[in-house]
Amino acid sequence: MARLEALRLARRGVRRPRGWRSVGWLALGLATVALTVLAAFPAAWIADGIASRSQRRVLLADAEGSLWHGSATLALSAGAGSETATVLPGRLQWSVAFWPLLGGTLRLAVTHSEAMSSPVGVAVTPLGWSAQAGAIRLPASLLEGVGAPFNTLRPDGRMRLDWSMLQGRFFRGAGQGGGGLNGHLTLRLEQVSSAVSRVRPLGSYRAEIDWAGAAGKLELTTLAGPLHLRGSGTLGRQARFEGTANADPDAAAQLVGLLSLLGRREDNVTRLRF
Q1: What is the pTM of this model?
Q2: Cα(198)–Cα(151) distance, rounded to whole angstroms?
């Protein structure tokens, strides 16, 4: 009996490794297929996803490459239904780290060939995302893609957007408010001019943005120039802005037309309401 039991155990000992070996080869095969699919995941699919999530306000045109390494042309539009978009010269580039994916985190480095001096790290998880502090330089003409009143003014000049550590959530959590964005941004507009005014430049301006959840607060001030703008508002689905505009005395006559486009004249200032 002891010999029979020993033989049975020996046979089982031989068969078991074969079974586990088959499972191992199957797992390796599935992993190989999965990696092959991910490696071939086209950048165009990523562009479609970003366009959908941003309601077609952020567009990645002429996307090339894959999930791991890719590039595209960045453009802004006024949203779904808009027939025009403003394109940023140069290429937006990204690269994805492989090993963090095994832990459920997508880590990528994003840079731009002309607008960013250094890459910015971005981490994405099933719950949300975060981005390191960074900065990007943009032409003021890019604002035309945002919509009114910029599509009428057709601004020109330089912009610089600086941001602190940014964080966002994809879903609403119990006791955590809404999803959206959290962080501080500073937008500087330098030597701004407009296609509807002969006065060049109109001025330089700064906008401070504090974003919390689904909405942000905006404060606009004038740094220099003959056209003085100031005001505050909110950003998000219920976006609005209220402020004032007035011109230096020596430029007032030349800026009458532009001020009339910006708002209604009240109490010696032009009221801005968007």
Answers
A1: 0.77
A2: 17
